[in-house]
Amino acid sequence: MSLIESTVAALGPWSWFVLGLLLLGLEILAPGTIFLWFGLSALVVGVVALLFDFAWQVDVGLFLVLSLVSLLIGRRLMQKLASEKGDPGLNQRGSRYVGREFTLAAPLREGAGNLSIDDTIWRITGPDLPAGTKVRVDAIDGARLVVSKVS
Fold first, then answer.
1. N or C: which end of the chain has fewer CB within 10 A?
2. CA gyration radius for the chain?
């Protein structure tokens, strides 16, 4: 009898918990969410094996079925969650400011100037305006914000 066979025989139903924890540990090391579903299935089979005394073939069959079902359901769930989350303006920070109003700290001269928003100083373009004027961000042009005077 090999070391693995003797360990599984000695642990009995607890071997499913060991397998489940090993698979969950692999999930931490590997990208994606593949091992998560197999690990959870092994833990469920471990609980069933503790409650009912089935043959090992039934336990393996249950593990295979649970793994397949949880993998399919988990993939759909992860795709749904991934499509709902996210920041559409992640790579275009300036797009977050379109439509917002700010007050100029420095004047806009010759159609260009700077605007301090939070912790960033943005280059802005727009009509010549004195300091203290309220402006609205209308669009983004590359790394510049296009502003206009608020009426």
1. C
2. 30
